[in-house]
Amino acid sequence: MTPQHGAPAFPLGDGVIVLEIAFCRKPFAIAMSVESTLFLPELREMLAENNQAELKEFCEALPPARTADFMSGLTPQEVWTVLQHAKLETRAEIFTYLDHAIQVEVISTQDLDQVAKLISELAADDRVDVLNDVEPDIVKDILSRMPAVERRDILRLQAYPEGTAGSVMTTDVAKLSEHLTVREALDELAHQAGDLETIYYLYIVDEGNHLQGLVSARQLVANINKPQRKLSDLMEKELVAVKATDDQEEVARKVAKYDLLAIPVVDEERRMLGIITHDDVIDVFREEAIEDAQRSAAIAPLEQGYLRTPLLTLSWKRGMWLVILFFAGLFTAFTLERYEGRVQTWPWLVIFLPLIVSVGGNSGNQSATLIITGLASGEVSIRDWARVVVRELMIGLLLGSFLAACGFIAAWLLKEEARSWNTALIVPCTIMLVVTCGAMAGALLPLIFKRLGLDPAMMSNPFVAGLIDILGIIIYMNVALWLLQ
Predict the structure, then answer these.
(1) pTM of whole model > 0.70?
(2) How confident is the prediction along the chain (485 residues), in pLDDT tens digits per residue?
(3) What whole-number distance in Å separates Cα of residue 79 and Cα of residue 70?
(4) What domains are there in the chain, each with its CATH number?
(5) Of the four listed, 240, 265, 417, 423, which is most buried by Cβ atoms within 10 Å?
């Protein structure tokens, strides 16, 4: 579509879609690209002129997610002003896609009566997520302005500990009686649909709200020509469910394993509490992946994003582990100091010391990464420790043999002192032992941490490398002593 005369020109890249929106005063083009900041001057001009017609059209013309993208770069006050030109339902949808920090700032600074109405329109899990980061006094004031039913729902969800299934579930779920017919179920679903986050699955409960089974929306539509058929005849009774206190990571694994769009959350008596939808599961996986990546670099997980974390907090989370690694490095220095006499006697050994410690550390890091990711995905468990030991022992010997041969050639070429029968074996024998020990240590340490109830990702690559450095020096010097005596 060619932009009309007078539309602002944007430098559009490959694959960018241009969408024309005709406003009351003048038409202009919106670049549907990652460079949404190109539109900010136009949006700010509308705000400055208080052009209500254009602002309303802006809020209504695009999908909520795209509207939120174009608002990135606005101040919280500007965001709130724009949102006032959308219907309450649309306003809530756009608000859901805004950056979390902007959401918190808007809630904390704007008219609480209007904020309470906005929060009431959000999905149950979304409003709890955002309110958890708002000052308690403000939250208390907002809750006092909300209907009692929604207030109790928020307080109930906030009571679940962070990281549990209850903390990420939504209570907006389609629940039907097994005694309903297909026609009655469709009528009931029509009444409930406006308040539901998803209607992929329709959960069947008894009078005591105990979960009995499930009927998919597809099944219901497929049986529309059998209006008198009971839901009890259609429902699936063998359901995968989780408890509200289950760890959210375990819940995410179940959803991925059984390829579910949502999973029901129940209490100890199997009463229906809510559901966890696939989009929440994606958020859990993303959160856990970020935490594991940060731990793998010996950084305490950041509760907020990198740019939103205060410098002192960021320094503490990085510094506390750097100090630990510093003292681990001191152990390496102390270990070397212990063998100072042997190094002075055979100074040519120092040349190969970096090679020895690096090859052992790399081997350990590879094993640790594989086992940590295996534990995270559920492919590996503590019960598999024996298989892991055997596999890593074999792999260590195979890789160690090849690298030992390379080390023998390197030592022979670099140092004349390493060409006698006994000195020639020092480097290759050490490499063989260090690579094997590194593989074993890197694989077993995460399993030990898991067995102790700790996060295996804490046994990160820097820790494994530090331990293998010390072990490599000890092995190297003792092999040299044994062969040179």
Answers:
(1) no
(2) 334 434 333 333 334 434 444 444 333 334 444 445 557 778 888 888 888 888 888 888 888 888 888 888 888 899 999 999 989 989 999 999 998 888 999 999 989 999 999 998 888 888 888 888 888 899 999 999 988 888 888 888 888 888 888 888 888 888 888 889 989 888 888 887 766 767 788 899 998 899 999 998 888 888 888 889 988 888 988 888 999 999 888 888 888 888 888 899 999 889 999 898 888 888 887 777 777 777 766 666 777 766 677 788 878 877 777 787 787 778 777 877 777 777 777 777 888 888 888 888 888 888 888 888 888 777 888 899 999 999 999 999 999 999 999 988 888 887 777 667 777 888 889 999 999 999 998 899 889 888 887 777 766 667 777 788 888 888 888 888 888 76
(3) 10
(4) 17-163 (1.25.60.10), 175-296 (3.10.580.10), 311-484 (1.10.357.20)
(5) 265
